User: What shape does this take?
Amino acid sequence: MKKTISLFFILFTILGFSQNKYYLITGDKALNEAAYKNFKDSVSVKGKVTEVIALVFKKNDSTFVLPHLEIKSTNTVQHYFDYQTYFEKIFKKNVNFTSLKSIKSNKNIDTSKPYFINCWFINCSPCVAEIPDLNKLQEEYKDKVNFVAITFDDEKLVKKFLEKRTFNFIHLSNQKALLHKMEISSYPTSLILDKEGNFISFSSYGSSIGQKYTRKILEKLVNNQK
Assistant: This one.
């Protein structure tokens, strides 16, 4: 019996370690364990690193790990996280903007343009922190893309907030039911939709990598409309 147990343990160990494990950071490539360790070491010089494993899934003979890295220094907080893969695995099946009249019926919406949707709320520090960058994106694509901000906050609170801070999006307030329908549970959450309201991509706009990726997607959508 002991020999059987020992043999099972050996086989389990061999199979477990023979399986490839990869870490997904930004969506454009997978890092093996050694490369991931080197990556963490390289960003650790920027500040304190906090790691949370958001998701683990298997594909073929490999295991993929989605870590969420937060690098906090004295003046800045930087995140590394493959939001796109996380969204594909967790949220995408629940998102369908095609029938959401509260967006497309808004008088400020141009239904001939694609959409950049930002889900946020007033007391969300990361949401507020990315507003200046979102304003820059809106200024760059304002004639080509609908920029819509959705929050569960009351309209009066949002108006009061906007009196003190510029946020150049079309604002939809009191949208708790809509956000619940989309199963949005993490903020800020940004989505890119085509002009028909179909989901195209998830957007992480809190990092330079996410900003570059977002512009790439928007350019492709805008160019396809010409």
User: Anything to note?
Assistant: The longest strand covers residues 48-59.
